[in-house]
Amino acid sequence: MSDNKIIVTGGMGYIGSHTIVELVNAGYDPVIIDNLSNSNVSVLEGIKGITQRKIAFEEVDLSDSNACREVFSKHKDAVGVIHFAALKAVGESVEQPIRYYKNNIFSMINVLEALTTHHIDNFIFSSSCTVYGEPKKLPVTEKSPIQPATSPYGNTKQVGEEILQEAMAIEDSTIRTISLRYFNPIGAHKSTLIGELPLGIPNNLLPYLTQTAIGIREQLSVFGSDYNTPDGTAIRDYIHVVDLAEAHVVALTRLIKKQNKSNYEVFNLGTGKGNSVLEVIKSFERSTGEKVNYKIVDRRPGDVEAVYADTTFAREELGWATKRDLDEMTASAWAWEKKLRGQ
Ligand code: NAD
Ligand code: UDP
């Protein structure tokens, strides 16, 4: 068994590609499995530009059980899996629930079966702060109550966590798992060789904002200014994608070194600081010198008012904390947008 081979499902995607870079930096040997349903093979070039390494890539749909079995038997010498592969558009999941459940849940079950078959004992799952819904108390700790999911996408994260918890609870389970609950990842690698590649009209704030500033979109809509927050716009915990990527390496290493306290652990990954939509716009204008054309419109259905992380557990147990501030996030998102458009 190789002692540093890691399978990264969804490794061609936004968070996955940044994590591949940090895995290589930490001395791991990642293999990407991705069906390119929301990514592009050119990402491999970007990763190579940063790491000087050609990363092994398998184009496979993990929701196909035979294909998943086959690709895992080829890489059964892996010591861990980071499971990013999922469809993630909240609105689309409401329109196409069966597609979302099939993709996200089947993939996860197939991957877990393969882990069991090949005794790959270390597993990291991409979860989300959406599991907290509209929190009654801020900041949210890992013990804050889970609220009913408001979309099929959100439900795939909750069900995913439940499946893991139950699967890890059986006595003869040798698998160790960490669910990482991401807050709002934004920004891009400082090299501008990898970043977020939204297909079509972006749903998320940052890609919509940078596409507006560069002239692809006419105006950014700020969804709601009547929230019970200091400036009336909604609050989120924005985290630099490279900080997030680094946390994956720390969490995986904790499992591989058997430093985990139980075989199912959960960590919030955020900065611990909430910023409003208007504060993000101001940060972008400050860090880039660009103006953003925006207007205030109605609230977006399903949005929560405010959510940000209590980071104590991640800091104390993982020894991990974010290093990059909001201005660095918005500046790097802009540098990436300019690079994408050849500017
Ligand atoms: P992304 O869409 O950029 O990356 C996901 C990757 O998974 C894509 O490359 C896609 O092609 C691949 N994929 C999807 N279904 C697959 C399948 N059946 N087989 C093989 N590959 C498949 O998304 P991201 O932003 O990098 O998110 C990564 C993970 O983090 C997802 O699980 C997502 O739900 C979760 N997450 C993301 C955010 C966020 O704001 N970006 C927040 C919380 C959680
Ligand atoms: N938002 C906005 N305009 C947009 C996209 C998002 O005002 O075009 C707001 C949204 O209402 C939320 C915040 O920006 O308060 C972050 O939204 P995003 O979709 O990026 O992430 P979410 O927190 O919904 O997962």
Strand content: 15-25%
Listed once per kind, the bound small molecules are: nicotinamide-adenine-dinucleotide, uridine-5'-diphosphate
What's the end-to-end separation, in Å? 46 Å
Q: Could you name the CATH topology of one domain? A: Rossmann fold
Give the C-alpha Rg.
19 Å
Low-confidence stretches: none
- Calculate the mean pLDDT score and round it: 97
Query: Do you know the CATH architecture of one domain?
Result: 3-Layer(aba) Sandwich
Largest sheet: 7 strands, parallel
Order of helices and strands: EHEHEHEHHEHEEHEEEHEEHEHH
Could you say which structural class the secondary elements and strand pairing correspond to? Answer: alpha/beta
The share of residues in helices is 25-40%
* Morphology call: globular
| Strand element count | 13
Adjacency order of strands in the biggest sheet: 3-2-1-4-5-6-11
CATH-level-4 superfamily name of one domain: NAD(P)-binding Rossmann-like Domain
Total of DSSP H or I helical runs spanning 4+ residues: 11
Could you describe the 3D structure shown?
The protein has 343 residues and is an alpha/beta fold. It has a domain of 211 residues: 3-Layer(aba) Sandwich (Rossmann fold), CATH 3.40.50. It is built from eleven helices and 13 strands. The strands form four sheets. It has a seven-stranded parallel β-sheet, with helices on both faces. The longest helix has 22 residues. The radius of gyration is 19 Å and the shape is globular. It starts with a strand and ends with a helix. Nicotinamide-adenine-dinucleotide binds next to helix 1, helix 5, strand 5 and strand 7.
